[in-house]
Amino acid sequence: MRTPSVFVSSAVVLAATSSLAAAGFTGFTTARTVLSNGNIQYKIFANSNNVGLPTGQSWVFLNAYSHTTVSGTMNAVHQDFLTADGEVGTWQAGASVSAADRDFDSWVAATGTYGSGTALDPNFSPSTGGSIPALAGWYDGTPAVNNLVDSNSMSFMVAQIVRAPTASLYIGRLELTYKASGTAVGIFGNGNFVIPGIPAPGAVALAGLAGLTGRRRR
């Protein structure tokens, strides 16, 4: 078993270079932390503002979906393993990872934290391996409990991706749904997120487009 991680360094990398000034969702940011084993942990946050949010209410995260790769290869590493073959890690948080190993594992979240409240949609197939599949999504598996966006940071973590320090730059795109607490009207946003790395040819130019976001009401 690994010992608890030691955060050697930590930095925030801005994934949204430009965004639409719309209610709620404003884009993704990526927090980078060097782990004690040399791998790099990236937390992907969906960020928001108070525009359009009624007084006394909070944004509630519902789901992320339609993940696509814009550039690069994700090359995520896991700390959990399927018993069937003993070598392929799963993106489902809470599968078989100890508290000491969670910082070293790659997983997706609809709760904002590591836990069993996140469910994978049918497009998340396979639910294992080093990349989130094309069009995959995840959602709140405990709808009776609201997954509130933090009122101070106005951000919500949707994934943790751990990679080797030699991994190349990766750019992905994600759709999401959220709402105001106490309402049933879904609001939709989308944008690119950037996981820094060794740039691949042409990837730097693509990174400049990373922050385009939008929203629409159902």
Task: Describe the SSE topology.
Layout: E1 9-14, E2 25-34, E3 40-48, E4 59-71, E5 107-108, E6 118-120, E7 138-140, E8 147-148, E9 155-163, E10 170-180, E11 187-195, H1 203-207, E12 214-217
Antiparallel strand pairs: 1-2, 2-3, 3-9, 4-7, 4-8, 4-10, 5-9, 6-7, 10-11, 11-12
Distinctive features:
7-stranded antiparallel β-sheet; 1 helix; globular
Tell how many strands the DSSP assignment holds. Answer: 12
Low-pLDDT runs? 1-22
Major beta sheet, specifics? Answer: 7 strands, antiparallel
What does the oligomeric state look like here? single chain
**Integer count of domains:** 1
Rounded Rg:
17 Å
Helix residue percentage: under 10%
Short structural description:
With 218 residues, the protein is mainly beta. It has one helix and twelve strands.
Structure, explained:
This protein has about 220 residues and is mainly β. The chain has one domain (about 10-210). It contains one helix and twelve strands; from the N terminus they run βββββββββββαβ. The protein has one helix at about 205, and strands at about 10-15, 25-35, 40-50, 60-70, 105-110, 120, 140, 145-150, 155-165, 170-180, 185-195, 215. The strands form two sheets. Strands 4, 6, 7, 8, 10, 11 and 12 form a seven-stranded antiparallel sheet that branches. The protein has a five-stranded antiparallel sheet with strand order 1-2-3-9-5, with no helix packed on it. A hairpin with a 6-residue loop joins strand 10 and strand 11. It is globular and about 45 Å long. Mean pLDDT is about 80; it is low at about 1-20.
